[in-house]
Amino acid sequence: MSLIGLTIGQARDQLRRKAITARELAEAYIKAMAVARPLKAYLVETPDRALAAAKQSDARLQKGNSLPLDGVPVAVKDLFCTEGVETTAASKILAGFVPPYESTVTANLWRNGALMLGKVNLDEFAMGSATITSARGPTENPWRRRGDNRPLVPGGSSGGSAAAVAARAALAAIGTDTGGSIRQPASFCGIVGLKPTYGRCSRWGIVAFASSLDQAGPMTRDVRDAAIMLQAMAGHDPKDATSALLPAPNFEAAVGQSIKGMRIGIPKEYRLDGMPTEIEALWRRGIEWVKAAGATTVDISLKMTQYALATYYIIAPAEASSNLARYDGVRFGLRVPGETLEELYENTRGQGFGAEVRRRVLIGTYVLSAGYYDAYYLKAQKVRALIARDFDEAFKSCDAMLTPTAPSAAFAIGEKMDDPIAMYLNDVFTVPVNLAGLPGISVPAGLSAEGLPLGLQVIGKAFDEETVLRVAAVLEDAAKFDAVPAFVAGAP
Amino acid sequence: MSNLIKGHTGDWEVVIGLEVHAQVISNAKLFSGAATDFGAEPNTQVSTVDAAFPGMLPVLNRFCVEQAVKTGLGLDAQINLQSVFDRKNYFYPDLPAGYQISQFSRPIVGKGKLVLDMPDGTVREIGITRLHLEQDAGKSLHDQHPTKTYVDLNRAGVALMEIVSEPDLRSAEEAGAYLRKLRAILRYLGTCDANMEEGNLRCDCNVSVRKPGGALGTRCEIKNVNSIRFVMQAIEYEAQRQIEVIEEGGAVVQETRLFDSGKGVTRSMRSKEESHDYRYFPDPDLLPVTLDPAWLAKLRADLPELPDVKKARFMRDYGLSGDQAATLVAEKETADAFEELQGKVSKRVSISASATANTVINIVSFIAGERGVSPAQFISTNDVPGVLILQQKNVISGRMLKEVLEGIADSKQSAEVFVAEKGLTQVTDTSAIETAIDAVLVKEPDKVADYRAGKEKLLAYFVGQVMRATQGKANPALVNELLKKKLAG
Amino acid sequence: MALDKATVARIAALARIKVPDSELDALAGALSKILTWVEQLDAVDVSGVEPMVAVTHARPPLREDKVTDGGIRDEILANAPETTDGFFVVPKVVE
Ligand SMILES: [Mg+2]
Ligand SMILES: [Zn+2]
Questions:
Q1: Is the ipTM reported for this complex over the cut 0.90?
Q2: Which of A115, B44, B327, B393 shows its CA 20 to 30 Å from the CA of B239?
Q3: Looking at the 3D structure of chain A, how many domains does it have?
Q4: Distance (Å) from CA B20 to ligand 1 centroid
Q5: Which of B221, B124, B219, B203 is nearest to B163 (CA)?
Q6: Among partner residues A241, A331, A345, which is closest to C88 by beta-carbon distance?
Q7: What residue segments make up the domains of chain C, in order of their start?
Q8: Cβ B265 vs Cβ B237: under 8 Å
Q9: How many CB pairs under 8 A join B and C?
Q10: Is A92 a catalytic residue?
Q11: Is the predicted pLDDT of residue B230 greater than 60, yes or no?
């Protein structure tokens, strides 16, 4: 098998056995990254940095005192601030911004031996579900519909991360998930995407979209890799007041453990009217798989599900309108001059933000404004409490939940673009998890009739990623998903 | 005492509420680890959190919470075991995040009170509405360049306590007394330096007028007045202005005004076309603040003795008048120096605390003030106890106190050495005084005649002449007694 | 809620985002559609429900009152569009 065909788990073994070197692995990926340029996944390539880190990894590997992620080349969503490397959140307003600091999650990765290949594309400020709102243009999904060569979206907002991993242009990637931004692109690209519990990974140094929803997580080839990556990323950070003061358990140990006797909840409200039959069928297959593995399924009810998207599209824009106020042309990023300060502000923000970001900032400003706060924002926070309560109740009768990840497979670039609400519906199964702050994972589970990957989602209790990983690994084993995208960098 | 203001149409009552921003004494900022020191080079005390760089997050400073709670306890206020930080959104170049982290609907401290000591010895209770924690903004300099504003973020993120009073104040004097009392409490607690001139105590005044007992009038807010004197001037001016507006048939417009200390007037700030809409909402980067009741109880138990309690103790234990006690306790240092002084002196001689208090209040404070030191500093660095002991022993007269206190301060000598060297020992020798009296009376036969004809007020004049002749060294009581005898004779 | 042009202009001013007059109508339409859609929450009975303020119930320690940061003026100013003598610079603010 070629170097870029290995998982993290496999590469780790070969590195430790000195069958390969970190340098060889890094060089293979640097080449793959270049080959994959037509996908426009990477915004910045940092090969020198990767090679320098690989050298250090090799030194440790030589001495036999390697770190958990030594030699693992990672693509970083350009929402993570990386010291000395331009960080833009795919927005014009942050063009040229070079942070003097490294986000906690990326710093944790490098401290554990991983190396950065580059920064990858996303929807502007992570606002989107298709990586088409990026100021740098869309990223293409490496998959194609059978007999149709139109470029598809990779999902979003972590579309660059998903495309890079799926195309073998990164061994793993990190993304962020505010309403499904890790799980939905993972589903669209046929990879594993894990959104940890809110507070599991530090948000420090991640360009904020919606603070009460944002969470970083890994995007990988398989479930074990997700566990290995999460281990390195997670942990309490005193610089983030919402980071949980909990030690990270051994996530990898959960992978491969039996789910015999486990109760898997099947939320009836996720059976949407007009849901494509292939999604329905996929879900049914998933249910059979967990049953076959010895788990029982329980019908559960998440009554508020239908209100989750509307709730999300009040809370997330409200927080975003405030979080994005700092982009004002004074201290960093774009400045579009004006005669007065007010003009400078308005010009900078008017030209610096793209259409979707502008829409969300305006919605957010409106729902917080005098006279509307109670009707929109406060109401949404109350419905959010009810949504969280639904999950609490449901988890009294089950250990994890199984649902589809997204209501469809990847769509073509240009589809759904004129209707924001149609786009928002992509996140119908993922958003409730963010509202409740729970962990969720998407595992590739099959192909659509058109030959596109589809994912199943496992949802767990707060801080119970171990159960999520256990169930996900069972699904992975059963699904035996081995389809390969149309585009693979340096195909094996 | 009446606070009413006379207008053409009768009496008016002025209604005042104050909003004070008190800078918390702390090493680091409210939500970052940058220093709070005053006067550093621009933007040197700024972290990436203070400058609101992308991805930066606030983490609350435990000590600032403690300081706010202490202050709340000092104001006899409700301490809220759960409080929430909110974002107050607005754009300004010295507000880097585009929002100020403050507390809106659930402040850390609720209702409390503050007792005013009025100049006539009476007390007034003023309600405190709330105290909350918030971040200071940076500084915008508009006068450095003809077309540019310069921004320094050193202050951005420094912890402030916003202390809001009920509209219970009824005169500029009361407002002044409120600020002096608040300053004393903050300093006793060590939670704020409370120096208005240095900007670590800033005051916004809400002023309205009404007919006594009538409905509240429309108020104006005078922003950022930076001394107690100016607060009083601004209120006086604003109350008069509002009365004139109404009496001339106009109506007061609710607005924000600025006090021009040069001209002693308030001016309307150019009102922005768009009214403020701060869009407060709970800051999702911060969890609600939860206080541990046991911790709170300990803080309460460890609270220092505060001015009101100290004043009551001084009246009870030392027999001081309310006025004397209030004056002494206004500064903790002074109160402490008084107690120490009284202790030292009374160990050696019998002296009334009231006499010591008067010396501190009238003489020591005056001399210290002239020398630019505090009364406490003056007492601790000079042999003040020695001077009081000599006076109680009748070695020097009360009239000599000021001269001797100044003398020991200048010469750095002990009271005893100074008095001996300068020969300031009081003359209690009857014959010497009689000689001096005789000399005075001989020179003033007309006045002696007048006195004897019934103009007894002249006695004071003769006493003065005798004292002057003896360079103040004669024992005044003896002079009085002997003079009366001679004049009668 | 259908937003009119004037409301959108007011919100845009509040958010300090310049929206050309020619785009106001289309934007008002788009925002109105989103707002009308989110108003499906009107159907939810939330009486007696406390709003969700914090997602996590953890109470990590607060920060100690120690100076651990600052003194990095060059880094603070390095990304700024305009600086002079250690200050950020903006067009003059008229009060
Ligand atoms: Mg205020
Ligand atoms: Zn304030």
A1: yes
A2: B327
A3: 1
A4: 8
A5: B203
A6: A331
A7: 5-42
A8: yes
A9: 129
A10: no
A11: yes
Domain contains A399? no
C-alpha–C-alpha distance, residues B316 and B11, integer Å: 40
Compute, in angstroms, the gap from residue B253 CA to the centroid of ligand 2.
22
Task: Quote the mean pLDDT of chain A.
Answer: 96
Give me the pLDDT at residue A423, please.
Answer: 82
CATH code: domain of residue B472: 1.10.10.410
Instruction: Give the pLDDT confidence of B134-143 residue by residue, as tens digits.
Output: 999 999 999 9
- B partners (3+ CB pairs within 8 A) are A, C
Give the Cα separation of A389 and A399 in Å (integer): 16
| pTM for the whole structure | 0.93
Token couple for B326 = 């209030």
Bridge partners of B82, per DSSP, are: B290
| B259 and B370 together in one domain | no
- Asked if A414 and A388 touch (Cβ cutoff 8 Å), the reply is no
B224 and B120 in a single domain? The answer is: yes
Q: Are strands B256-260 and B220-225 parallel, antiparallel or unpaired?
A: parallel
- The per-residue pLDDT for range A85-106, each reduced to its tens digit, is 999 999 999 999 999 999 999 9
The verdict on residue A160 lying in a domain is: yes
Cα B44 to averaged position of ligand 1 atoms, centre (Å) = 28
Are β-strands A73-77 and A115-120 bridged in parallel, bridged antiparallel, or unpaired? parallel
Residue A312, domain member (yes or no): no
Q: Which ligand is located closest to the Cα atom of residue B205?
A: 1
User: CB-based contacts of B461: which residues, under 8 Å, 6+ apart?
Assistant: B447
How confident is the model at residue B270, as a pLDDT? Answer: 61
Domain that holds residue B468: 430-488
Strands of B148-152's sheet in order across: B139-141, B148-152, C87-91, C83-84
- Average pLDDT over every residue of B197-205: 92
Q: Which residues pair with B114 in a beta bridge?
A: B126
List pLDDT tens digits, range B130-172: 999 999 999 999 999 999 999 999 999 999 999 999 999 999 9
CA distance A319 to A360: 10
**Touching C: B residues 97-126, CB under 8 Å:** none
Q: Dig out the tokens for A250 from the structure.
A: 């051994």
More confident position, B39 or A168: A168
> Which of chain A's residues have a Cβ under 8 Å away from the Cβ of C54?
212, 242
Burial (CB count within 10 angstroms: exposed 0-12, middle 13-18, buried 19+), residue A192:
buried
Within a domain: A364 = no
From CA B471, how far away is CA C28, in angstroms rounded? 92
* CB burial of residue A288 (10 Å; 0-12, 13-18, 19+): exposed
Q: Does residue A181 have an active-site annotation? A: yes
pLDDT in tens, A438-454: 999 999 999 999 999 99
Distances (CA, A) of B112 to B84, B108, B126, C91: 19, 12, 9, 43
* CA distance, residue A97 to nearest chain C CA (Å): 6
Position A157: which residue type? S
For testing contact with chain B, the best of C7, C79, C88 (most B CBs within 10 A): C88
Name chain B contacts of A331, Cβ cutoff 8 Å: 51-53, 96
Residues C30/C11, Cβ–Cβ less than 8 Å = no
- CATH code for position A442: 3.90.1300.10
pLDDT digits 0-9 by tens, A212-266: 999 999 999 999 999 999 999 999 999 999 999 999 999 999 999 999 999 999 9
- Ranked by mean pLDDT, which of A38-52, B2-16, B386-400 comes out on top? A38-52
Do B42 and B180 have their domain in common?
yes
Handedness of CA B413, B416, B420, B423 (dihedral sign): positive
For the cut 50, the answer to whether the pLDDT of residue B273 exceeds it is: no
Same domain, B396 and B445: no
Assess C18–B contact: CB distance below 8 Å, yes or no. no
Domain with A440, as residue range(s), is 3-262+406-479
Per the structure block, which two tokens stand in for A97?
A: 């911004």
User: What does DSSP assign to residue B42?
Assistant: T
